[in-house]
Amino acid sequence: MTKSALQIARAAYQPKLPKALASGAVKAVEGAATQSVADQEAIKALFPNTYGMPLITFEAGEAVKLPAMNVGVILSGGQAPGGHNVISGLFDGIKKLNPENKLYGFILGPGGLVDHNYMELTGDIIDEYRNTGGFDIIGSGRTKLESENQFEKGLEIIKKLGIKALVIIGGDDSNTNACVLAEYYAAKKYGVQVIGCPKTIDGDLKNDMIETSFGFDTACKTYAEVIGNIQRDCNSARKYWHFIKLMGRSASHIALECALQVQPNVCIISEEVETKDMSLDDVVTSIAKVVADRAAQGHNFGTVLIPEGLVEFIPAMKRLISELNDFLASNAEEFSHIKKSHQRDYIISKLSPENSTIYASLPEGVARQLSLDRDPHGNVQVSLIETEKLLSEMVASKLATWKEEGKYVGKFAAQHHFFGYEGRCAAPSNFDADYCYSLGYTASMLIADGKTGYMSSVRNTTAPAAEWIAGGVPITMMMNMERRHGEMKPVIQKALVKLDGAPFKAFASQRDRWAAETDYVYPGPIQYFGPTEVCDEPTKTLQLEQQGK
Question: What is the pLDDT of residues 439-453, one digit of tens each?
């Protein structure tokens, strides 16, 4: 592998560990028994072997000689910065326990387990990937481990390789699957442990025991750098409004964190839109008002941050999408014979009055995306909707109306951006490099202690790394029942932006000033070398959430 100068320098970086893990020998201290966040009886019935287990905290202990064991590791779902360090920490942890221990990586995600596609991860391979971004050491995939047939096929290779434990690195769905797999192997008494690690740049896998998911810190710093660059350009040219869509379909954590870092003129928070039952026109009007107010000051420029999943959080749009899905599924044959030029009018004539009015108000391109660009199940592909263009076009239309009415004097020109893939494989920040390495190392200690159905947990993360607290949390503790594809299923509860939480309150207290003023912050690139307060600072979100705890 050809390495850049930065990669060569980063390879020498030794991630910091919590004091207990760095001591070289640990003991597991069991805390209180746990229960699920909701639907306790239903979750307990589904997970009788892994429900109610205690919280685990690791403290310095005496070294214990353990027999050699083999461990398997899987990267699941979308990429997030720091995945390679989770694997590095896991590797170093099991080698510390016994140099004879081996680590096997399953290729391209959970599908590699089912298809028996694997490779041994040796020290030479691991050293190539320390402190690097991406998941390319073994690749990732989105195969869901859900069926007994998959579990049994996986068991075949687990037995063949003599694997004692499997570590699944993924988001809420992947860790739900890890919990189901742990329960299945425990019920069958197969003697295979399953441990999860919390990954998702969207930041929606967190709770009291999982303070942040890995990759969120790096991704937000990567996006904030580019937004800062755009804001500097915006303030230099002074002629464009930049509409910037950011990753985050299920929650607005990335948009909120980036707003706290760069201080844009507008940032939409999907959860607030839903709570206030705002219509699409309400959202558009709120943006247009900021544009008009700034134009009155002679400022025909600004920035707007938009979460990727906004459309699904607007209650009226959600109802429209639901009716469209049902209607087009039931009338697919008839719709296929309607000429393209007549399809919009046809749909408008068939929808309920409320949804018909909303559909008719949408720009032509977005209306087409809603009705034509559908997934294999016939549903609207919300992620393909160019929300940033939808909003800017509708703002432009509203401003034109206001201009005719004499309510707006200014010029409006928009530029559009979507930042997603740019942040998923960035070289991890010092925080993520340390945090991920600690998560992997903690997973090795949970395995050594015989645990299964646990997620690796590292807390107190706004303190210096030596003061972090390593341990484990039963995955069942995070679960509730939700309707998926028409059935009630156990899933890890998603963490949405809390409107009564410190991060949102800090944002809300400042946004009116940010809207009126041009008080942009330019964070610059991620710093890997230099003063601790520059290099190791966690996200604004994490700092605000942990204040006073």
Answer: 999 999 999 999 999
